[in-house]
Amino acid sequence: MRPFGKPAAVALAALLTLTACGGANEATRVAKGPQPLRMTIWTSNEAHLKLFDEIAAEYRKTHPDVGEITFDPIPFENYTTTLTTQIAGGNAPDLAWILENSAPDFVSSGALAPLDDTLRKAEGYGFDDLTPSAVKLWQAEGRLYAYPFSTSPFGVFVNTDLLKKAGQKTPAEMIEEGTWTWEKVVAQNAAVVSKTGKAGMVVRDFDYKSWDNLASVWGGWGAQAWSEDGRTCGFDSPEMAEAMTFLHRAVFTDKAFPGPGTTADFFAGDAAMTITQISRASLLQDAKFGWDLVPLPAGPKGEYSVIGQAGLGVFKKSANAAAAVDFLAFFTNPANSARLAAYFPPPRASQLTADTLAKSNPLLKPEQLQQVVIGGIEKGVVKPSHTGQAELAQTVRAALDPLWRPGADVKAVLGGVCAKIQPMLGT
Questions:
Q1: What is the annotated signal peptide range for this record (predicted)?
Q2: 72: closest CA among 88, 91, 100, 90?
Q3: How far apart are CA 41 and CA 75, in angstroms?
């Protein structure tokens, strides 16, 4: 969701606005010799980096004016903070991955170069193949400021061997009989913990800090962090109270989720289930256990889907902005988009078919891709995003801290969240 309320003054937005201002565009400077490009990313996955380097090498063969193209991994948990620190220090990259929760700030700031003209003119690019729903978050006043290279619904990876050891049905069986629901799934994970000593359900990358990943849970109750227009806090709604009460009970009473301070790696066989995206499937290449990938369990409001997005943008004040936009066009053209689809579901309508995705995702079955990815994109909502997200995220995280204790007063904590952030959401 992309709200349009007037936000409080926020450090990130202010910094990006300053980045967009100033005198003549630095890209107009004349440089001698091949110019390097640097792109910040949050993956250090060797398979991802190998593919990126291959695409960059192909580009440089026909662009002698471009020097080394570097992909600079920044840890996910500190990505936006580190990126904005680089910007503030005059060390901004030429291109950058951008999280969906930071999209409103980056897009509205004027810090990013518009991409439309270059992408439309690039031979064979197929700009009109980009789906309107995928590009919406990255547009302002009809211009595209970042390419949504990944539109990825959250699904559930399941260790079917652990379920069998605990005497539980497989997700496929439950989906067939219509019992793949949060109530049943929590009971299953509690049984795994009790009978095998392994962990139950892990919301990957949450770790009781990145609260927006819990949208993959509370969406089943129809809860929202804030209203569609971004003006009204949703944490104190009845739907959110029901969802968070359920989650609190699942963590502290049922022990179905690892508690605060406890970690478990599903991909190492240490947990029964994990909520994440298909880009993690490559971690199962050498898995020594049976596994499946299925949609999120149904909640009281029925079936639902939550989508994480990532955009790729170029900083307008980069000394090499023109070359960076041209490289972005090559990096995301139809052929390379198909290659990237092995890890990142593309925004191209022509490539969003189970058969097409299966060709670049050999570990996943066409029916898994159809159910989780294709079906998820069709009915999914994007994780919470808002202008001023950095300050909002920190405030929500701090206000939710009292919730992650046994015996917490869920409604009181959620009311406290709204008391803190409502003034920040605008009027």
A1: 1-22
A2: 91
A3: 9
